Structures are given as structure tokens and as C-alpha cells.
Amino acid sequence: MDRPDGKPLQIVMEDVADTLDLFDFESYEMGRDRFTLLEDVFPMTGQIHYEYDLGDSWGHVITLEKTVTSQALRPYYLEGAGFRPPEDVGGEGGFEAYLRIMADENDPDHTHMTTWSDSQKERDLSMEQINERLQRVFMGYMYSPYFV
């Protein structure tokens, strides 16, 4: 995300090993995930770049479409569409190979990939189930003054 001073903000998870050792302080301003609010990020830009699963490097562009005001400090799933790719499929390149193999029943890896894929399927969750899970995660989160 570009900042007014021209230095992009990179939000990091502090509990990931070596985050501080590997961070490029010359090129980026660091935002800590626990203390960086999305309401502070989006006024500067309508889009943010998000990398999920640093091993597979899934890159996402998240675009702010609307805001919903609430007095409650809690995560809440509003809406969504589609399914996620299988976990640990190997990033974008692995996902492309997965789709190619799954589409070709004659591919020598098709049977193996189908068996593996069945173990990775996304569960079809309702909005209520997703929000219940988000609440459980949020209830387990505790602010610690030791990380300030």
C-alpha cells in the first residue's frame, strides 16, 4: 500500500519467525498486524495487496467496495462467492497444474490428484457457521502490552 510519504506500508505478522530480521526497513514502513486497523489503511488507497501463505505466495488484491458501521469490535463475514483452491497446492503455478490434471481424466496423475483433492475440499459453510468460527478465533485473541 502506498503511503503519503511514498514509502509503502507492509503489514506483517510479528509472531512469524524472523519477521524483524528479514524485513526491509529501507524500502517499507512496517505495520504490525495486531495494531493496524483497516479503517486506517483504506482511506489512503482503495486497494491493498495481500499475500496469503508465504510458502505458496498467493497474491491477492483486495478492493474496498463498501463499509458497514458497527459498534461491536468483532470480525464479521458479510458476503462472498466461490471456493478457495486446495491448501498446499503449490501457489498459482501448482493450481494451474492442478486444474489441468483434474480436467484430463487420461492424465497419469489424475487418480492421485483426485484422491488428494478430495481430502482438501472446502467445506460448504453457511454465513452463520463462518461468523461462529470468526467469533471463536477473536475470543482467543488477547492484546498483550508486551508487544507494544
UniProtKB/TrEMBL annotation:
Residues 24-120 form the Plasmid pRiA4b Orf3-like domain. SUPFAM superfamilies: MM3350-like. Pfam families: PRiA4_ORF3. InterPro entries: MM3350-like_sf, Plasmid_pRiA4b_Orf3-like. This is Plasmid pRiA4b Orf3-like domain-containing protein. It comes from Lentibacillus halophilus.
